[in-house]
Write the structure tokens for this entry.
Amino acid sequence: MIKSKTILSVENIKVQYETNNQFIFPWQKRNIIKAVDGVSFDLKEGETLGIVGETGCGKSTLARAIIKMVPTCSGKIIWMGENLLTFNKNKMKKIRKEIQMIFQDPLASLNPRMNIGEIISEPIKTHFPEISKIELKNIVKEMMLKVGLLPNLINRYPHEFSGGQCQRIGIARALILQPKLIICDEPVSSLDVSIQAQVINLLKSIQKNLNLSLIFITHDLSIAKHVSDKIIVLYFGKAVEMNLSKELFSNPQNSYTKKLISSIPSFRNSFLTNNY
Amino acid sequence: MRGLIPKSDIKMIILKNNIEKLSKNLSELNEVKGRSLWHDARVRFFKNKAAVISVILLSAILIFSFIGPIFSQWTNEEIDWGVLGDISTLGYPSIDSGHYFGTDELGRDLYSRVIQGTKISLMVGFVGALIAVFVGTLYGSIAGYFGGRIDSIMMRLVDILMSIPYMFVLILLLVIFGRSIFMLFIGIGLISWLDMARIVRGQTLSIRKKEFIEAAIATGVGNFTIIIRHIIPNLLGVVAVYATLLVPGMILAESFISFLGLGVQEPNTSWGALISEGAGTMRYGTIWQLLFPLFFFVVSLFSFYFIGDGLRDALDPKDI
Amino acid sequence: MHLLEINNLNISFDTPEGKVRAVNEVNFNLQNNDSLAIVGESGSGKTQLVFSILGLLAKNAAVTGSIKYQSQEILNLPEEKLNNIRSKKISIIFQDPMTSLNPYMCIRDQLNEVLIHHKGLSKHEATNESIRMLDAVKIVDAKNRINMFPHEFSGGMRQRVMIAMALLCNPNIIIADEPTTSLDVTVEAQILELFKTIQKEFNTSLILITHNMGIISDTCKKTLVMYGGRIMEYGFTKDIFLNPTHPYTMGLLETMPSIDKEYKILKTIPGNPPNALEIPLGCPFSDRCSHKIDICLSAVPPVETIDTTKQNRMCHIPYQDLLS
């Protein structure tokens, strides 16, 4: 059995915000919010890490810190053996080919003034500007097929698609550069229930085919359990528990984790106890 | 409406489930045309009767300023000695004498002068608006996108420029460098972009927070490319509305300066100058000298305002 | 006598793109102390349905059928008469607590507005009543919190304020439109618990609208499943969960991953939720249904009542065939 290698190693990351007004004197107290307060984890090739927590726990901030979209105060982000925090802008641009992101609101993550052909091809235009228009179109159409969209809709605009289809477009855009890691920030939370399963299945099958690693952020524990190999539970910026998916649910250690699991509505049990 | 697909495509949607069949038939499927937000806005704009009529009127005035000279029998400088001395009776508008709009106080053909004035005033309005759009949009979007110190410095500069009394500077420039159209453009250009920059910066701040900008950053798109490809197209709605409302402002400003006597030099003229002259001679019974330029002035301004309103309704913020 | 009786309700909208038929031939009742869940995804018409009860639809809406409250017809009632029903007899809690409260008014003023307008109380009496109601929805330190502004509250607390506002005039029916969709899981559990308590304490009936079937099992006696503007299934919640009789309900229940099970691949309902302008002839679910037969595409299915459980289902395929 080939041991899969660790591609991402996050060590003690801290992200802080100051909430003072723009100008304060040096001796005045600064209001500091610790959005992420010392989180560490490893991620292997082909593995899925689930990050769960409630609103304000810092999961979205953590995701953005990993790809340097928000500034990190301290800690290390080791990608393929190198610390991303030491990279300058040019070096970071190359890394952006390998780490991509999918967002929560599918329609809002697409520029309403661009048609989906332009949206999906933008990453290629950015990193490989020498590719010809015709070749670009073929690559885009192929990718649309892979995510379950009709290729002849390539000139349509985002508002002409449903939520689930928009998320597929977002996935196509994330995949087109063949990244090694995709960070999914609550990708199915705003979708209809019957579509959520479609998108999750699509992500999982793509992961299998391309040996992708995924970081899956969600507040829905049932989805987290199904999708992730291992899960981190965040509470106010701190990782209160990290374990393999199955272990976490069968044997939660932390009291907050237990509280989260017990809040999940489980309808079969309630019928046995309730009498109407 | 999400997923609005015409009946002709429903068959293709059902096919979607059989991807294998589809890839074999790929070459037979034609690409579907997209329906952009601009298209929707255009449809809504043309449903607005006042706006459409205004567009027609404005185009008519524009065409008049180009074609008009073909019909005129007098130039704008020529003095008709025959009517001098008794303008109120001889200088009356008539088709026979060739003075379709009558003559002004000095016996010059008002028709040609009004055409001249139309050209100048509209040019001032458009150039001012154009400068505002280009300079203001770029300036405002850069300030809004980068934020922080760059934003502070850029906006404080705008604040300083705005607090300088505009008329004062303009009059000073005109007095020092002499009255010319070029000077007028510079003066108006100096002022017109400031408001636009503020508005664009505000819009940029709210667009910058949207997820598709985050997606572009995560993809590795460069900052200036993001501004030009993602931010500015989403601003254009607001910019278009504001620009059409700026044009009348420019024309009014120029008219005021001409009214003061500091505007374009003779024999060039503008609506403001003509109205100024016409107002001065009203009591002598030569009311056409006021009415003709005033008519063009008012109709143009109203048209711009209605078009601006129509654009604002058409580019409903709901779509942005 | 039914508390609320809806018969043959049809809602359509006149839009520039054509006529949109949002709700078609909906029939159901609500009794005193009853609780009903309306389950459906986007495009199912559930929000338009409850808006029509309170006359909150847009101006281009055309509603036919009958809505009776305590045997009195309230559909298309003039505004003054409808205002007697709104808040006093039937009140509604909207979906997003972030935007349902006026950010410029403090909570006290917003709650008092309801009481002063509907019950004619003085400002002092209204404030006392408001504090009492905030206590009832378990807001800690209500006496001081009442002077705060909406942005100083968390999402869950804002929703509690909305619930308090809905209860102020002691209505007989509370309609909650996706009350917990924008809330976290732990807060959601608390709010649902609150709904149960309130039903008992205040003797109100509850209509709960949601797209998440997981939350209704504990709170609602009956369930109405809607798709594409029509009722697919209607019956006691327990029966619908344990013995669903409609392909859509079965599909919905299957796509929800449960904590207790292991899945290799999640079961899905293929296709997309319906586009209101292009609802197919016949059964609206037909283009996504794995059991469909020819007649499903052309004819609207009849409503069938199952004898044993009194479940109503709208499907061409006999129940027994679905089970196989």
User: Anything to note?
Assistant: The interface with chain B takes residues 17, 270-272, 275-278, 287 of chain C (CB under 8 Å). Chain C has a mean pLDDT of 87.
